[in-house]
């Protein structure tokens, strides 16, 4: 075994000097968003996190603008962010940075020229007091620019707009805690944040505007006590924003008039802010702390961490001639984090033995299993034991963000478990920390809805609608983003396609494709004993005009079917019912049959050309009437089309309404399928449109039958009706084609096809160099049928057998679909060739091609070479 590598005491300094921190961060997914004109600083961003990288002495350092604890050299950067966010120890950092340097030098980065040595020597190098003073001066300057010299609240417009009343604003608790910030003609409402040293930062708010000064977030917004200075504080209420604190006070102070201090963190609390909240608790010694954060995943995450971090007022104990707060023991602790989609909870048990740890873990695991077992959609909480020793066990639980409340339930149970495990003197009173959620998303929304006169139940319903609206807007944004990405990709593909099409090789390929199409040698290379393509009807086209004319025929067939439907319905009396007496009504009840009829046989046993069934359901429009179904059936039976109708089945409900039905059976290979399709489609369409004659009428069928009939109808030719239509008004003819003018108001949507993918494989003896093989012949035949073919990919094995493969695509709505289908079947039957496709795709193209064959002349049209 190799001896462990000794650590070079100067290696860490070398890492700092030799590693470009910006390049190292970019490899971790950060992106440069801004940089100084002289290259003396860079702003990096990743997932909303903003880092500033500058140079200090002979190396680079970084600062996280959202967390003043997160700063330092490349050593600190790697230590904090390594291990997939779990952190690395120093040995792991060394190993990672060694690997980075072994990958080669980073790109040369231009930095500002070094300052004059004499000038540098004149500065107080490494003087902490100087750095602190510079930071203090910057903080003072930024705050002064916002608040000015005279700090007062002169504009209440924004607060009034958020529903905050003057009585609340003038409360003693908020005096000197809200100001007006004016810069030029703009006025914003300012909320100052304080720490132990005084004013730390300022948050500004206005309509559609929110800004927190770019200073370390180490202060909190804190009110005075509601009963004035020098009074005993009974309660502290912690929320995410000052506006929520004001809203909570306005909504609830009249109901519970305890002496209260309000604290807000201006968003996600930092470690420094949590420490400040605990210091306020230590000083004020309240009886309870209320966590009043938002009712969402973020607010629940904050509450989970507060439950772990906040304790009753801690006593001071002497330590090395000083005093320090005595921290309570932590037999159990936890910390919640979140990413874009999930919320995680890291739980750490401290125990005296491995057996005690296993017992505690089992207890938590059983509780998670119990919660997972109650979820309708299956388990939602994932539990993983990350590490365990005699003294410590670490677990991680994870849920989708929408299920964060389940983790919050567990943290409340961990909170109670921790208090039971603590020594008696350290146990908290059970009611010290409690959670108070708004009914809607946040307290200001509760205030807004309450001012509108809504009660709690109505607010809860509105909150649900708000959440649905936010989700709809989020989905809309995602859809818009997806659409823009697709458009960009499509544009890029079009540009690339245009570039390729303009090359000489592409032009030659197009000319070769045209020659192959014009030759039309379908079947020459794929003939077999089982099937000859010449014996099968197909249609080829000599020009685009012929293709367009054939397509127009489909449109004409569809429109003519609608015209005939309208005529035969209008030629008959309106199918209405008639009144019946009690005796006939009872007889109808006795004859009621269809509710108990047996289900239709499964389609799987149907013959190759099967009869389809569409069930007509016709309800009487008034009680104690009958005959409406019989009238409809008579209209259909007298039309003399190829479908057949069954006897009528009926039943009568408690209100005396007769509900009847009968079956219409038809076949897709009949010449009048276009008219049958129009009858069914138009009947449903008119019923859904609310036309009086069609009230209570519907035609039901399977979606597969409807789709197959629509394809067959689009390909079928219209056959003449067998009754005298000499007095019928002929459809208007177009001047150019002599075809009936399409009636847009009654048109049935054209069938929408899908693109299908097929792989053809050909195994053959390798042809001589330059000779055309079977694979090339198959490709040419398939391309001639109207399908698109990709390049032939071939390999030759040691036995001289050539294995070829090509991708083929076609659309189910293209006019040549019958020809494509015949060609693919012919290829599949040829020795050495195979067609790989999904069985449902094969069945679909064969079914569709049958409908197209009906409309084609029963002959082959020879194309001259």
Automatic annotation (TrEMBL):
Biased composition (Basic and acidic residues): 578-592, 799-809, 838-850
Pfam families noted in UniProt: Toprim_2
Lineage: Bacteria, Pseudomonadati, Bacteroidota, Cytophagia, Cytophagales
Protein name (record): Toprim-like
Organism for this UniProt entry: Hymenobacter daecheongensis DSM 21074
Compositional bias per record (Polar residues), positions renumbered to this chain: 828-837
Renumbered residue ranges of the record's region Disordered: 465-514, 571-592, 712-754, 781-809, 828-865
Compositional bias per record (Low complexity), positions renumbered to this chain: 741-751
């Amino acid at each position: 075994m190799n001896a462990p590598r000794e650590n070079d005491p100067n290696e860490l300094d070398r890492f700092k000097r030799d590693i470009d921190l910006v390049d190292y961060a970019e490899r971790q997914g950060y992106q440069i968003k801004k940089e100084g004109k002289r290259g003396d600083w860079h702003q990096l961003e990743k997932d909303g996190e903003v880092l500033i990288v500058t140079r200090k002495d002979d190396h680079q350092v970084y600062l996280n603008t959202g967390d003043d604890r997160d700063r330092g050299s490349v050593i600190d950067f790697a230590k904090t962010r390594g291990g997939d966010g779990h952190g690395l120890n120093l040995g792991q950092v060394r190993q990672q940075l060694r690997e980075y340097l072994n990958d080669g030098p980073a790109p040369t980065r231009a930095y500002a020229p070094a300052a004059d040595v004499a000038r540098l020597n004149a500065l107080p190098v490494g003087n902490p007091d100087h750095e602190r003073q510079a930071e203090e001066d910057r903080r003072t300057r930024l705050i002064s620019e916002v608040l000015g010299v005279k700090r007062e609240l002169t504009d209440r417009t924004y607060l009034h707009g958020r529903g905050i009343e003057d009585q609340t604003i003038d409360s003693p608790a908020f005096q000197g805690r809200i100001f007006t910030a004016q810069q030029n003609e703009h006025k914003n409402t300012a909320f100052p944040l304080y720490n132990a040293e005084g004013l730390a930062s300022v948050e500004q708010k206005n309509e559609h505007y929110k800004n927190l000064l770019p200073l370390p977030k180490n202060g909190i917004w804190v009110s005075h006590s509601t009963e004035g200075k020098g009074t005993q504080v009974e309660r502290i209420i912690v929320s995410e924003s000052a506006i929520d604190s004001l809203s909570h006070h306005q909504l609830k102070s009249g109901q519970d008039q305890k002496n209260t201090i309000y604290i807000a963190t201006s968003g996600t609390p930092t470690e420094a802010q949590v420490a400040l909240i605990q210091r306020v608790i230590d000083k004020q010694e309240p009886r309870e702390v209320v966590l009043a954060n938002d009712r969402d995943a973020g607010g629940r995450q904050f509450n989970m961490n507060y439950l772990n971090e906040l304790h009753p007022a801690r006593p001071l104990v002497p330590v090395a001639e000083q005093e320090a707060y005595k921290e309570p023991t932590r037999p159990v602790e936890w910390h919640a984090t979140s990413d874009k989609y999930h919320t995680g909870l890291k739980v750490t048990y401290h125990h005296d033995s491995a057996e005690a740890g296993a017992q505690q873990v089992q207890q938590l695991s059983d509780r998670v299993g119990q919660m997972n077992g109650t979820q309708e959609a299956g388990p939602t909480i994932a539990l993983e034991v990350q590490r365990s020793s005699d003294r410590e066990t670490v677990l991680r639980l994870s849920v989708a963000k929408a299920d964060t409340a389940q983790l919050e339930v567990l943290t409340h149970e961990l909170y109670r478990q921790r208090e039971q495990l603590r020594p008696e003197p350290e146990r908290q009173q059970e009611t010290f920390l409690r959670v108070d959620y708004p009914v809607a998303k946040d307290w200001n929304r509760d205030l807004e809805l309450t001012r509108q006169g809504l009660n709690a139940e109505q607010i809860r319903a509105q909150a649900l609608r708000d959440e649905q609206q936010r989700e709809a807007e989020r989905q809309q944004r995602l859809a818009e983003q997806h659409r823009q990405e697709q458009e960009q990709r499509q544009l890029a593909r079009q540009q690339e396609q245009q570039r390729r099409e303009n090359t000489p090789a592409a032009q030659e390929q197009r000319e070769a494709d045209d020659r192959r199409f014009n030759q039309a040698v379908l079947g020459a290379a794929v003939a077999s004993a089982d099937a000859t393509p010449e014996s099968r009807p197909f249609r080829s086209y000599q020009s685009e005009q012929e293709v367009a004319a054939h397509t127009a025929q489909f449109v004409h067939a569809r429109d003519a079917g609608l015209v005939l439907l309208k005529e035969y319905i209008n030629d008959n009396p309106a199918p209405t019912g008639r009144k019946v007496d009690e005796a006939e009504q009872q007889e109808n009840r006795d004859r009621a049959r269809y509710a108990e009829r047996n289900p239709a046989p499964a389609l799987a046993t149907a013959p190759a050309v099967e009869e389809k069934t569409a069930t007509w359901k016709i309800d009487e429009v008034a009680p104690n009437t009958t005959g409406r179904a019989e009238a409809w059936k008579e209209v259909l039976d007298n039309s003399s089309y190829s479908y057949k109708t069954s006897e009528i089945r009926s039943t009568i409900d408690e209100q005396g309404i007769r509900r009847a039905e009968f079956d219409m059976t038809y076949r897709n290979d009949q010449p009048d399928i276009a008219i049958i399709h129009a009858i069914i489609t138009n009947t449903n369409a008119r019923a859904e449109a609310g036309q009086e004659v069609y009230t209570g009428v519907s035609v039901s069928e399977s979606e597969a039958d409807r789709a197959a009939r629509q394809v067959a109808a689009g390909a079928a030719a219209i056959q003449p009706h067998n009754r005298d239509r000499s007095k019928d008004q002929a459809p208007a003819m177009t001047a150019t084609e002599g075809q009936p003018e399409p009636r847009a108001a009654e048109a049935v949507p054209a069938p929408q096809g899908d693109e299908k993918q097929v792989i053809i494989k050909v195994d053959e003896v390798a042809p001589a160099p330059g000779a055309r093989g079977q694979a090339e012949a198959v490709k040419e035949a398939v391309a001639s049928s109207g399908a698109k073919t990709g390049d032939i990919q071939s390999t030759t094995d040691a036995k001289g057998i050539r294995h070829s493969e090509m991708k083929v695509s076609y659309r189910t709505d293209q006019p040549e679909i019958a020809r494509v289908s015949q060609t693919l079947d012919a290829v599949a039957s040829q020795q050495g060739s195979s067609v790989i496709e999904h069985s449902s795709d094969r069945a679909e193209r064969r079914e569709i091609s049958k409908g197209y064959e009906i409309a084609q002349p029963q002959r082959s049209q020879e194309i001259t070479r």
